[in-house]
Amino acid sequence: MTKIIAISGKGGVGKTTITGLLLKFLAEEYSDNHDILVIDGDPASNIPEIIGLKTDLEKTVSKLTVNLKQKIDKGDIPPGFDKGLALESDIQSIIYEEDDYDILVLGRGEGKGCYCFINNLLKNIIDPLEESYDLIIMDMPAGLEHFSRRTEKDVDDLIIVTDMSRMGFNVVERIVEIAKEVHLDFNNYWIIGNRFTEEAKQYLDEKIAELKEKFGINIVLAGYVPSDNEITKANLLSSPIVEIPDDNPAYKKAKEIAEKIFKF
Ligand SMILES: Nc1ncnc2c1ncn2[C@@H]1O[C@H](COP(=O)(O)OP(=O)(O)OP(=O)(O)O)[C@@H](O)[C@H]1O
Ligand SMILES: [Mg+2]
């Protein structure tokens, strides 16, 4: 069974950085025996940088859909033809194959309404890909819209990252609320606190207990990742997060978190 995990949370809380740390773990401890696909679901497409993938982003789902649309407009594909099926057959050609995992970049919507179009097709994209992978991990954009479109309908576990701000906490709650409203039935909600001080941790612990009670869901604190100078430096120098040393304190914490989330 393919496990699908999505990473969400308020803008700028560290979703992509934490995805990078989790990928470092997966590359080291998991990828020998498992096929992994990373989906960069954010139109800002930061995953390539985090993992050190040099690309001019020619291969994105967005570009593929634009080409598809052009083909339809030119009459190369009959109007009644299933767009999902057409995409499905081309998707393999835009997957970046790295040593430890494959990458699929959604990219930026080109033209009005396009991102919505991609989001709607995401369901068609994930279904056939499930056959080829044991684990699919998706870095999602900030914001909540994609939840109401049920983009995450196939997702098993949802990771929500928050920083120690009230807005971060509010977004955690809104995500849970919307997920419940639109019946996204995640097996687990994992909360990761990024860059917390010791004193602030109790507030997140309390928030999680409150949400568990209020929504009756399986919501668990996966752990805390400290603010870290090497991450700051990697970001400034555009060097890949996956290359920070094994004894880096933030990575060590992320590794403990990963061991819980990807238990094996
Ligand atoms: N633990 C950390 N220590 C130091 N810097 C961090 C840490 N986590 C995140 N950052 C920095 O915070 C900034 C935002 O992080 P990141 O891009 O991962 O957030 P995001 O949630 O993916 O943002 P967006 O919503 O724009 O996609 C980056 O400059 C990143 O280097
Ligand atoms: Mg991001």
Low-pLDDT parts are: none
* Share of helix, binned: 40-55%
Terminus-to-terminus distance: 14 Å
Shape descriptor reads: globular
Instruction: Average the pLDDT over all residues and give the rounded result.
Output: 90
Strand order of the largest sheet: 3-4-2-5-1-6-7-8
Number of strand elements: 8
Topology as H/E string?
Answer: EHEHHHEEHEHEHEHEHH
Radius of gyration: 18 Å
Strand content: 15-25%
Main beta-sheet annotation: 8 strands, mixed
- Enumerate how many helices there are, as a single number: 10
**By helix and strand content, what is the structural category?**
alpha/beta
Tell me which ligands are bound: adenosine-5'-triphosphate, magnesium ion
